[in-house]
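Running co-folding for nicotinamide-adenine-dinucleotide.
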Amino acid sequence: MINRNFVSIIGGAGHVGLPLGLALSSKGHDVLLIDKNQKNMNKINNGIMPFVEDGCEKLLKKMIRKKKIFATDQLDKVKKCKYIIVCIGTPINNKFKPDLKKFFNFFYNIKKYLNKNHVIIIRSSIYPGVSNKIFNIIKNRCKNLSYCPERIAQGKSLVELPKLSQIISGKNIKARIESGKIFKKVCKKIIYTNIIEAELIKLFSNAYRYINFSIANQFYLICKNQGLDFFKIRNLMKDNYKRNLNIPMAGFTAGPCLLKDTMQLSSFYNHKFPLFRSAMSINESLPQFIINELKGEYNLKKKVVGILGLSFKAENDDIRDSLSIKLLKHLKSKKIKTLQSDEYYKDKQNINKNILIKRSDIIIIGTPHKAYKKLKIGSNKILIDVWGVIKK
Ligand SMILES: NC(=O)c1ccc[n+]([C@@H]2O[C@H](COP(=O)([O-])OP(=O)(O)OC[C@H]3O[C@@H](n4cnc5c(N)ncnc54)[C@H](O)[C@@H]3O)[C@@H](O)[C@H]2O)c1
C-alpha cells in the first residue's frame, strides 16, 4: 500500500537530499533516504552528519531519535512512498558535455517499482529536455513527473529552504499540485511554471553567478598585472555609486554546481556560448596566475608555500572542484614544499593555521573562512589573498 506520508529521497545521503529529507521529516513526513554511499548512511543512521550543513546535525539527531528518517540502500522501498524525490548527481564529462548515462539508467531501474499513484520529483540539476526524456522512460508506469530545482547555497539549506521561492513544474496537473503540496510544507513561496522554464531558471541562475564572479576575477587580474590594489579600487567604485554595488569580490570560483551548470547550459546551446568560455578561462586560470606571479619573483624551490583553506567555499568542508586543491596539487607536482590547513575539511596532512603561518614563507588564502579574518601575518611573510580576507 502506498502511503502519502512517506517520502523517499534518492541520493538522500548527499548535499541536496539529506537537508531536504530533514526539513520534510521535521514537518511530520516519514522520510527514507535511499543511497549507495554506505559510509555516509551509517553516519546518518547514527545521527552524525557526513558533511557540514548549518543546523542539520541537531535536527538529524532529533529525527533519528523520533524514527522519522532512515537511510537505506534498498530501492524497492520506494513502492510504499507516495513521493519519490531524485537528488542524485548529474556530472559533466571531460569534453564539457553532460554525462547522464547513470542518471537515465537510474530511471530504467526504478521503473519496475512505480505505479500511477506515485509522484516523482526530479531535484538534480539538469539541462532542458532531460525531464521529457525521463518522462518517456517511465510514462508506461507513472506519468506524475515534476522538476523542482534546488537553488540553495550549499551549507545554508535549512536557513534558505523556507525563504527562497521554490520553482515547481510538472508533466501533468497532478504532478504539479502534489509537488506544490509537499514543498509548501517547507517553503514559503511556490512558483508554478512549465518544465523547460524551470530547467532554464536553474541553469541561468548558476551561469549568471559564475559569469558574474569572472568579471571580478578579470578586474583582479588586470589590477595585479598593473601592480594595483583591486580591493581598494572595488571599494571606491561602490562608494556612493549604486550601479556598482553588486560587483562581487574576487576569489576562487569553484564547487560542484556553478561551473557544471554553466557547462550544461553551454552544451544545451551547442557551445555557442562565448561568455561561458571566457568566464571559465578567467576563473579556472587564477591558481596558475598566482603560481606564475610567484615564480616570476621568487625561487619557489627554496620557499615553503602554506595554503590556508582547501574547501571550495567558506565555512564548509566540501572540496569538490576546489581551486585551492587544484593550486595545492599543482605546487606539489612541481616538487614545491607545501603546507596545508583548513577549518572544516579534515585531512591527515592538515596542520594548525598558526603553525602553518609560522613555518611558511609564502601564505596563500585558499578559502575565505571567517577564522582567517583576524590572523596576524608578519611583514616578513609573502601573503597572497585573492579574496581580500585579511585586513591590512
Ligand atoms: N550541492 C549543491 O549545492 C547543489 C545545489 C543545487 C543542485 N545540486 C544538484 O543536485 C544533484 C546532487 O548534488 P549533490 O551536491 O547533492 O551531490 P552529492 O554527491 O552530495 O549527492 C548525491 C548522492 O547521490 C547518491 N547516488 C548516486 N547515484 C545513486 C543511485 N543510483 N542510487 C542511490 N543513490 C545514488 C550518492 O551516493 C550521493 O550520496 C546534482 O545534480 C547537483 O548538480 C547541487
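Result summary
The radius of gyration is 23 Å.
Residues 10-11, 13-17, 34-37, 40, 87-90, 106, 124-125, 150, 154, 256-257 surround nicotinamide-adenine-dinucleotide (CB under 6 Å).
Job closed.
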